[in-house]
Automatic annotation (TrEMBL):
InterPro entries: N5-glutamine_MTase (IPR050320), SAM-dependent_MTases_sf (IPR029063)
Name of the protein in its database record: Putative methyltransferase
GO MF annotations, alphabetized: methyltransferase activity
PANTHER family linked: HEMK METHYLTRANSFERASE, MTRF1L RELEASE FACTOR GLUTAMINE METHYLTRANSFERASE
UniProt cross-references to SUPFAM superfamilies, sorted A to Z: S-adenosyl-L-methionine-dependent methyltransferases
Protein's organism: Gordonia sihwensis NBRC 108236
UniProt keyword Ribosomal protein, yes or no: no
Keywords annotated in UniProt: Methyltransferase, Transferase
Domain of life, source organism: Bacteria
GO biological process, one term: methylation
Length: 262
């Protein structure tokens, strides 16, 4: 049914609830709903502020349809930069080893697995909900559970060519600046980065990576551009050679820290 303004009931409902992209969201809800009853229920959930991706159970990430749901971090479109950097770093290495750390539902690992068929791909996260979704999404690869890199099998020590990560990197004092969709529906442990600068997890990963990277391997970490100078300093302090790849949004960067070749 269409309203006087030309909108159908779903678009009107979503717009009234404050959804900026109401038409696009209505199309996505219709695409995934199994009948009118479910569509009505989903409209209520979305209007109440649940993330669209949690409601429909899917997110499109760089053309991949990934499972996601309540209790899990929804991959952000800005992380396509990290996905591309990871594939570039793997380059033409024969049978490379790739790990997504802090993987959530494993968007980067899934992207790498789809594009680098010869790569051995693994993903790891501390949260059992994230590990469950990652296991569904990463069809050709292994998923492990543990803090940082601690859940990885010992035989990967000094064997990994590329580690990529979107660790939590929001400083605790900046949490109130995030949209309610994130703070009300995604785990705090997926958002808050630790330390005054939000770089606690990223710094730990840089240190830990030195034990897991193969000679000449690299760890690539997404963060805010303002955090890059401090991350570069930490990388140098642990013996890695950092450089920064900037995203088009002017805020997102990937710090790539390379291990010595020998
Ligand atoms: C910002 S989310 C990123 C998830 C995914 N990489 C993405 O881009 O969608 C951070 C993830 O780190 C995980 N995490 C938080 N603390 C962790 C820790 N100490 N060790 C391992 N994973 C952790 C959370 O469970 C969450 O899934």
């Amino acid at each position: 049914m269409t309203s006087a303004g030309g909108d159908d009931w779903l678009t009107t409902r979503l717009r009234a609830a404050g959804c900026v992209f109401a038409e696009e969201e209505a199309a996505i809800l219709r695409r995934w709903a199994d009948g009118e009853a479910q569509l009505g229920q989903w409209a209520r959930q979305r209007a109440a502020g649940e993330p669209l991706e949690h409601v429909v159970g899917h997110v499109d990430f760089a053309g991949l349809e990934l499972a996601v749901g309540p209790g899990a971090f929804v991959p952000r479109q800005r992380s396509r930069l990290l996905a591309r950097v990871a594939v570039d770093l793997l380059g033409a290495r024969p049978a490379p080893v790739f790990v997504e750390a802090f993987c959530g539902v494993a968007p980067i690992a899934s992207y790498v697995a789809a594009r680098c068929r010869s790569a051995q791909v693994a993903a790891t996260d501390a949260d059992p909900v994230a590990v469950g979704f990652a296991s569904r999404n990463l069809i050709s690869g292994a998923v492990y559970r543990g803090a940082g890199l601690s859940g990885l099998p010992a035989e990967l020590r000094r064997e990994i060519d590329v580690i990529a990560a979107v660790p939590p990197y929001v400083p605790a004092q900046a949490l109130e600046l995030l949209p309610h969709e994130a703070t009300d529906h995604e785990p705090r442990s997926a958002l808050i980065g630790g330390g005054d600068d939000g770089l606690g997890h990223a710094s730990d990963l840089l240190r830990e990576a030195t034990e897991w990277l193969a000679p000449g391997g690299a760890v690539a970490i997404e963060m805010n551009a303002r955090q890059a100078p401090a991350a570069n300093e930490t990388a140098r302090a642990v013996g890695l050679r950092p450089r920064v790849v900037s995203g088009e949004d002017g805020q997102t960067v990937v710090v790539v820290a390379a291990a010595p070749r020998r």
